[in-house]
């Protein structure tokens, strides 16, 4: 049986408590790919980015968020869509501030990230490459 081209999952997370659930959901799917064993540092980075992007959607966009994970055998794409048309911008934050570091954290842990405007809001997508080939559902 030939390997699939990609595998992915999607779920919506509500404003009132979706961040913790989003982290757990992402961890479960990363474990299904085996990343908890083969690429634990990258799996932790993905979960951190999930947390930051869902928080941004809930706090700044005041919106439910749709979270999508797609593994294509080369890059794990993490996308979070919210319903605000305002594009996120990294902002400076001082050592005493309790917020303002989310996008800087995503930039630090992801291989690259982008924001895409959409008619019903925007999507922030980050790509994560494992440090070495990892097994997962794409392997025969």
From TrEMBL:
Domain (Histidine kinase/HSP90-like ATPase) ranges: 19-127
CDD domains membership: HATPase_RsbW-like
Pfam families cross-referenced by the UniProt entry: HATPase_c_2 (PF13581)
The entry's keywords: ATP-binding, Kinase, Nucleotide-binding, Serine/threonine-protein kinase, Transferase
Coiled coil region boundaries: none
Molecular-function annotations in GO: ATP binding
Protein name: ATP-binding protein
